[in-house]
User: Fold these one by one.
Assistant:
Number 1:
Amino acid sequence: MGGRGRAVGIAIGWACLQALALSACGGKAQPEIPPAQTDTSTVFGSGTRLKAHSLDGGSGARALLDFYDTELNTTCQFVESASGQWHCLPTAQARAYLDADCREPAYVEFDQCSADPPLPGLLVSASSPECDALTRAYSLAEERTGSTLYSRTSEGCIPQTTTYESAWSLVLEPLTRFVQGSLSVFGAAGGLQASRVTGDDGAYRNFQLMADGQPCVEVMLRGERRCMPGLSAVEGRFYFDGASCESPLATRMLTDGQRCAGQRSSYVVQRTQENCVENDSLRTAIADVSEVYESEHAGQCLATSPDTVSDNVSFYHSGSALSAEHAPPMGIARVGTGALGLPCQTDREGTPLMAPDPHLLFPQIWQPESGRKCGSIPDLNGTLHCVPWSLAMPTIVAGSSGPFSDAGCTQLVTSAFRDTCSGESLPDPYFTETAKTRCGYALTHAYRAEPYSGPLYEQHDTACVPASPWKDHLYFVVGAEVDLASFPALTETTER
């Protein structure tokens, strides 16, 4: 309950990635990472009451999951409770509402890994668009069955289509029960820094990269990563500034905190790639948009109704060109001296500022000594292993056309896209099998992915005929089984 044990749940996203494996995710060559730094103690740390709950790769490499509040016996994370105010509020979240105005939050148990059902008094949090109460804390009050639940969307408060056996009404809890935090800036002056929130008990974590005293966003300057101060907007293909839908607008989805602080984008980013070198062109963002149009599938260009666009979406015209030459470089160093490290952004003195986020959908954040990134997934015994992106085991189903390696069309060959900008000849080195469990998926077997360059065949109706290789694709067959113990281990730990 309360968010503990979520590292195992992260494996759900990892296993789902196998459905995309035929597209050869993760084919890019890993950038060269400088030698290891000692640990992640400059990125986050425990206090007297809040204890860091993290994934531990050993030898100083730890990725923060959340904090454990020893007084309230729940996990929490620092969030903006009101504009400019921070508290460590429960990680369990109420995402539904009991009323058609979306004013009464309700809690539904989504956690498949919870060993026990929720009970009255369980602490949860809920977000709100109100600037004086962006996130509030609640406790469970009464379990209700057969209730219609609602969701807050850009189109208003609408009934949920998914039905649940029960939902809990909530009682608002005072923020004084929770650790309060304050913001500061960490890192050597004159370059890349990070915003840091520190609890009144001494616990801390870095939140966002900073440059010139304001949040910054990664941009590419002739292949080099820089951190450009201010918020960016991206020119898209969905919104336009005229009834002909010919001049695209740039957009930015603001967080509630950014909207409440009155922040707006200061530049528009457009990325190009030439000879495998990425470069961003920047232009000033001009917020003078009066009317917005969007192109329908039928080819019509229609005015966008304000009721269908979130208040957090902002629109911009692109103005004069900007330069990113003054933006500080984004240094990266491998943190941890063991089998697993974390590629962390550093300040100009090499001090780690930010570590990768283990909550990402496909958290391939760890850097083994081989340089190929890997992500955590449990085996059937619950041991977490760090496994690179892998290919799904080939399975013949009705209607499979191939490709096959034999003239009888019985031995499937797996294809993977060849990244022409990568020097890797083996983008996905393994085939893996997983099993569905109560908490998601578990790794059961792994096999070497052996490159295949022999003849190819396809099934056409009832005939098995020769086939030509697809352009920019590599082919693999299943090789020898790999001992799961050969993959580096991760542990989920809470400091004492």
Number 2:
Amino acid sequence: MKQFNRIQMNNQFILHADNQRQYYDDEFYIKPDIDYQDKNDLYETSYVCLLVPRFEEHLIIGDLSDQLHIWMKDICISFGWRLKYLDDNPDYLHWIMSVSISSFPAQFMKMVRRETSKKIFADFPRYKQKNMSNEFWAPWYFVGVGEVPYSLSNIQLFIKQIRIEQGLI
């Protein structure tokens, strides 16, 4: 069985999906932090998440940026998650969401990647011309437990690591 690559940055894990399947074992499991401040959050935990487009020139701007905000809200409502923060930059999509403690990061990241990719390629076919995969996003993502957005320096480091893995740097 193929394993995914793991890169550790400040106790956060970057997970790599291999052939659109994600494998993990106890070593990669991120134990949830239960937030006792709100009774509604008793069985939920918050995750900070980051996705980067597969191609550098596929920027998240204009209508795509507007649509991603709508789609992310719809996806979270559809799957019973709470979107707490959403920041799109031309180079990445960065959000914080609260999910049930029974949800694994690999599960919800796969759903977000799949649903947003389908919508992007359907509504913005120009991105499909160069990208022959069914994934708009690079095969790596950055996810960690918490409610504090990643620093710009960590985001830039993550993007650099993706471009190195792609052989672009």
